[in-house]
Every structure is written in structure tokens, then in C-alpha cells.
Amino acid sequence: MTSKRVHPGSTDVDPQPAQKIRRVEPEPQRMVAASAAGVKRPVAPAIGVKKPVAAPVPRHPVRRPTAAATVAGVPTGINKQRVAPAAKVGTGPTKRAPWDLKGKYSDLEVKVQNYQSRLKGANQENEGLKDFMSRAKEDISKLENELDSVKLQLKEVPGLKKQLERVSEQLEHVSQQRDTLEKDFSSTSDKLKSVTTLKDCLTSELHDAQSHLSICRSSLEHKEEALRKAQELIRQMEEDLYNGEMERRRLHNTVQELKGNIRVFCRVRPLLSNVEADIPHIQLPTHDAKAVVLAKSEESHTGRSGDTQKNYSFSFDHVFGPRASQQEVFEEMSLLVQSALDGYNVCCFAYGQTGSGKTYTMEGSEEEPGVIPRAVQQIFKAAKALESKGWEYSFTASFVEIYNETLRDLLFKGKANKRPEHEIKKTSSSGITVTNLTYQSVTCEDQVHGLIELANQNRSTAKTNMNDQSSRSHSVFQLDIEGKNSDRGTKCKSSLCLVDLAGSERVQKSQSQGERFKEMTAINSSLTNLGIVISALASKESHIPYRNSKLTYLLQHCLGGNSKTLMFVNIAAEMDSFSESLNSLRFASKVNDCVIGTASANRK
Length: 604
What we know:
Layout lengths: L31 H6 L29 H6 L28 H55 L1 H103 L3 E6 L13 E2 L7 E8 L9 E8 L2 E3 L5 H16 L4 E7 L5 H5 L8 H16 L4 E13 L2 E4 L14 E3 L5 E3 L5 E3 L2 H14 L2 E2 L7 E2 L2 E12 L4 E11 L6 H4 L4 H24 L11 H5 L1 H4 L4 E8 L6 H15 L12
Parallel strand pairs: 1-5, 1-16, 6-15, 6-16
Antiparallel strand pairs: 2-3, 3-4, 7-8, 7-11, 7-14, 9-10, 12-13, 14-15
Helix pairs in contact: 5-7
């Protein structure tokens, strides 16, 4: 019987029952990728059942796996597909007839399509797993780096812990300071309140004071205006008085020059025991600055009457009392010093008994400089002022002493046993010079002061019964001055000679012996010869014995030559020095009466 093939779609023949769908395992080589990833493959759906769609694999962000999952190699960031259960097939035949090749072919095509779909999904899943693995490796590398960083941070933990402890201590200290400051602030607030209250009170008082001040200021302005006018009048009167005094001095100097006399100033030394004490036996009239009177009580020779007071009056160019300052003394002779810059030879010397203040008058002290340092200061100051008028000056200083009628260079710096000998000789211009003497060029007063200190160190002094530091020689400081005015073609040459004579002594008082007695004899002899020369000049004798002593021979040009000469006679204030003071004043009177002629300027 020939069987007739019926088309599956024909309605005349009943369709073959659907074959039972069975699960077909995938080929081993196609499961390698999935197995390598460690993911279970989903089961293929049954024929005729709709295939479930696999969930998409997320790319970003990837959840960071834990350390345990990373070590185990299990991926954690992928949502696994759940295997869809096989769909239940409806009741009926599941097998096709053996002759239904077309149906079998159709079933195989469906299977192939399912396998292909599954293979495609597996490939996509494999690619996703590869991406995941790559990202996992990157995450692992980052985690390792973070782990190294954490380890480094863990190593720094002890130091941070110590630092934290220090910060804690500082915080505690700051807290204590804060508490202290809070207490101080509270206390300060209370004080501020008190101060504010006080300020309000003071402000009120200030307003009252300002009102009063305004009234006083107005009154003060009127008084200041009156005072200003009075001061202006006083200044004018002082200026007139000063000009009058300068005119008096100028006229006095003119009179003295016309008379040709040696000017004499008398200075009374104060009592050493009490500087402010009065000296009854030395009287200085208040109305006359040129007179001095020595008063002494003497017993009556007959005995019938009481003691009688005998007065000895003297008059000089100026008399300085015991309270006169060094400045006052120098002001009286400042015009004489100024003459040295005008081309006049100027000589000033101090005479008196030992201990009467001659060295103090001539040299003074650091606090109260005497005639020599003040004269040097004035000379250099005036020379500086004359530079603007075209004058240029050069100065040469020398310092010599006469000790036991022997000349000694006080500026000599060599050994004592190698001192050269000195002689007094006349120059071609009728001047006096000393051989082998040190002549030091000086440009400022400080250099001169240095020379004076050197001379004081080399000068001969000794202790006697009348003076603890008595000068045992006559010292002569000489400053030679040469001036030139190129604009006018004028030159001048002069010398400033400042002499500190040794003091006269009496054997009964000084009780000098040995070397001191020899010195005293030489001093008294030279002073006696000075008196003889003065007497000869006063008597206008034809022969003046200058060569009788080294002192008079050295001062020849000052006593009888072309020079303006000033002598200080110093007297002691003690009563036991009355006789010596009287003799000194008598000698000074002879000097004041001595006519040496009018000095002229040495100009060319």
C-alpha cells in the first residue's frame, strides 16, 4: 500500500505529535570560555517556549570586590543570570514520525538557532567577564597601592601619637591660660568700670580746668607780651653794657699802651680749710675792682693804748677776689691774647709765694682750665674765624723750664741721661731763641693740650712744708704764630709767651734741706734778679742786668722789648702768709710802675 505524504500544514491529516524536547548539552569546546570564567551556563529553553532575555552586564561603575572575594577568584560585580526553567510542554505526542524528515529538519533548525543564540550570549558573557577581569586587576593594583599607603601611614602613627600628646598638653596649657585670662578679664572689667566712672569725674573736672585755663591763657598772653618787651629792653641794655665794657677795655688797653706799663692783675687764693670763709686781713672794696688792702693789728710800742690796725693799700689794673672763677680771670685778659693774632708779642707770667695758686691760675684743672689752655683755645678759634677774611696761620709750640739755673726741654722724649744742653742766644731780628729745644708744629688745641700734659709729667715738683706739690722750677710755654693774607699781601709774626714762676720761700717756714734747699736758693735768686731788673727799668737806668739770671735773660724781650706784658700776682689768704703777701704786692707795684715802651705789631 502506497503511503501518501501529507503536508504538515494540510488539514486532512492530523499533525504529528510534537517531539519531546530534551536538553542537549553544549559541545565541550564551546563551553571553555564559560567554564574558565567559573559561571554556570543557563539551560536552553524548550522548543516553542519563549527564550528569556539575559540581563545586561553592567560596565560602570564596578562595585569594588572585597579582599576575600578577590583572593578566591570569584567575580563579585556581575549579576548572574538565573537559569530559566524549561517550559512545560502541553500534553500530546512529542515525537515526530520517522518519515517526517521535514519536521525533524525544522526541529533541528530550531535547535541550531537556539544553540547559536546561546553561543552568542556565551560569547557576550565571556567578553563581559574579560572586561571585568581587567577592571578587577586595576582595582587590585589600586588596592595594593592603597595598602602600601596605609602601611606607611601606620608607620607614622607613633609619631603622630606623640605629636597628639604634645598638642593635648598644649591644649591643656592653653585651657589654663584661657581660664586665667577669663579671670583677668573679669577683674579688668571691674577695673574698667571704676576707671570709666573716674574718667567721667575727671572729664567734668577737665572741662572746668579748661575754662579756667582759657582765662589764665588770656592773662598769660598779656603778661608774655609785657615780658617780651621787658626782655627786649634788657637785651638792649645788656648789649649796651657789653659794648660799653668792651669800649672801656679797649680804651684801657690804649691807655696802657700809651703809658708803656706792664699790666698787673692781683688774685687772692681762698682759704684751703674753708673756701667760703671771709678773710678779714685782706679787704677788697666793693666799689673798686682795682684796689686791695692788707690790714694787720699791731701792739702799741708804749703800752699805754690798745692794739692799732695798720692798713697797706695797693692799686692794680684789676683785683680778683677769692670767689672769682677761672672764666672771669681770663675774660679780663682775652683782648691781650687776641693781640697775638694781630702781630703783637704777648707775655703773661704769674708771681707769688709758693702755694699761692700760680700754677692753678696758669694751668687750672680739667673742670676749670686756666690761662694757658683757654688762651690756646681762643687763639685757634680766632684763627679759624679769620680764615674767611683770607688769613692763614701756622703755629709752633715749645716748653722749657729753668731748674737750678739750668734750661731743660719739657718736650724731650728721650732718656734723661741723654738730654742735650741748651743755651739762650739772640737772633738776627733781636729776638731770643734756645738751642737744641724741641719746636713742635701744631694745628689744633688738642695737640697743644697733649704737649702740656707731657710737660707737666716732665716738670720738676716736690713736697715741702708749705706745699704738698710745689713747683721747683720756672716753666715757660711759648707759641710762635705766623700769619699770611695772600689777598692783601700782608704777613705777621708774633709769639705768645705764658710763664709759671716758681714760688718764693723762706727757710724758716719751708725748712728745706739738701736738694730742696738748693732749689729754694736758685728760685729766690732768680726772683731777686727779676726784682732788680724791674727796679732798673722803673728807674730808667742805662744798663739793665738781664744776664744775671737765666729767667730774666729768657724774658728779656717781654720785660724790655716789643711786647704786651701782663703779670699775675697771687697772694695766699692765710694770716701766717701776711708778710709774704705784703712783699709780693710791693713787688707787683714796682712792676706796674715799670715803663717798657709801647709795643708795635710785627707786620710786613
